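Before the break, one more example. Copy the sequence into your notebook; we will annotate it together after we see the structure.
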Amino acid sequence: MSTPINSPDLVPTTDAAALRAAYSCFPSGVVAVCADPGEGRLGMAASSFTTVSLTPPLVSLCVQNTSTTWPRLRNAPRLGVSVFAKDQGGLVRQLAGPAEHRFDDIEPLTTADGAVFIPDSAVQLSCSIYNEIPAGDHILVLLRIESLHADVGVDPLVFHASTFRALETRAIR
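Here is what the structure looks like once it is written out:
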C-alpha cells in the first residue's frame, strides 16, 4: 500500500456527530407523506426524499424504524406526497410534531382513493408502495407515482445543514 501524499482528515463513522454533520452537507427536498386510510388523516414529514426512475416512475424516502406513523400509513391504498414550498417550514415542523396536531389549521386536498396533499405545495404525487427495503435504522421506501401535479413556478423548501432553506437563482460560471 502506498503512502498518501495529501489525505483528507477522516474520522471513523462511529463518530455519530461527525456522520450527522456529513449527512447535513447534502441538501434534500422536504415532503409530507399523507393519507386517509379510513381511520382519519395520517401524515408525517420526511427530508430524505429523492427521485429514482422515470420508467417506472419512482421516488424514494427513508423512514425511521421507530416511526409509529409509517406502519399505519403503509396500509393506505394511495399515499399523497407533497413537496413543501419554500414558505412552508412551519408546516414541516407541525407534521413532524405530535400526531394529534399534525393537521391543525390545515385544509388538505384529498383524492377519492385516500391520498392527502398539503395545499400550495410545489408538487403533489399520488403514489403506491413499490418496495420497502430494510436499511440500517431506517426503511428505504420506493414509491411508484400514479398521478401528479407540479407547479415549476413554486420554489421548493430545501433541508440543508440541519435547517430549512430556499433556493437562490444565480449564474454559475
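The chain has a mean pLDDT of 90. The chain is about 10% helix and 40% strand. Try to locate both features in your own notes.
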